[in-house]
From TrEMBL:
Source organism (scientific name): Cylindrospermopsis curvispora GIHE-G1
Protein name listed in UniProt: Uncharacterized protein
Length: 62
């Protein structure tokens, strides 16, 4: 599963917290509603010219 987050004020760091929250929510949604455990969720935060790639696995973001 992957997510893309685009911060509104052109500050890459401002989108990281919300992106991580969305990654956790996606894991939880799939665990509860879809009855499946997705081990890794990938995500990216971008302002168009700069991209920050993230992944969450076992509650660890890297």
């Amino acid at each position: 599963m992957s997510l893309i987050r685009n911060p509104t004020n052109e500050n890459l760091k401002s989108g990281l917290g919300q992106c991580i929250a969305e990654m956790i929510a996606a894991q939880e949604f799939n665990r509860q509603k879809q009855n499946q455990q997705i081990k890794i969720v990938y995500s990216v935060v971008t302002i168009g010219t700069i991209w920050q790639f993230l992944q969450i696995e076992n509650q660890v973001v890297s």
